[in-house]
Amino acid sequence: MTGQAFPGKKSKGASGNFFQQRVLEIVRAIPPGSVLTYGQVAALADTPRAARQVGRILYFYGERVPWQRVINHYGGLSTYKVGSGERQRVLLEEEGLSFKADGTIDLNRYQWRPSLKIIKKLGLPEEIAFQINLKLDYASHR
After folding, report:
1. Long-range Cβ contacts of 115-121 (<8 Å, 24+ apart)
2. 74 in a domain, yes or no?
3. CB-based contacts of 97: which residues, under 8 Å, 6+ apart?
4. Which carries the bigger pLDDT value, residue 17 or residue 82?
5. Residue 51 belongs to what domain range?
6. Which of 60, 64, 57 lies closest to 41, judged by CA?
7. How many domains does the structure of the chain reveal?
8. Helix axes 51-61, 18-29, angle to 10 degrees
């Protein structure tokens, strides 16, 4: 289920740079009941260290993708800062995710690990599939 990430925010046109398109493809591929962090989406888009840019893209294009499935590296919701935290939480709970007492999500339980088939579909070389999953594991244990 998608929803308007930021009510009243007008989205930009459908065209965008390669990184934007890659981010949107990755976020669309995250299955219901799973999450990735902003940094993990950036790593999968082959642009490590671009977590903030991922957040910016979701701010403008959120209503087109399941934006609620992207969270911060602590397992928390960063969208409270822009007024959509409660909406994100509700959408994630509707997908079956549960929150810990501190308001975070257990990344070990809910983090999506894309299969080799998905890696290929996203246009990433097969040989880096293992490396990407290592990066995802590393990010979830910081």
Report:
1. 118/29, 121/29
2. yes
3. 33, 35, 105, 110
4. 17
5. 18-140
6. 57
7. 1
8. 80
The CATH number of the domain holding residue 132 is: 1.10.10.10
Task: Note if the pTM is more than 0.90.
Answer: no
Please, are residues 91 and 1 in contact by the beta-carbon 8 Å criterion? yes
CB 107 within 8 A of CB 35: yes
Place of tokens 């409660």: 86
Tokens of 8: 């009243």
| Cα distance between residue 96 and residue 78, in whole Å | 19
Name the pairing type of β-strands 70-71 and 36-37. Answer: parallel
Residue 75 maps to a domain: yes
Query: Tens digits of per-residue pLDDT, 37-88?
Result: 999 898 888 888 899 999 999 999 978 899 999 999 999 998 887 778 899 9
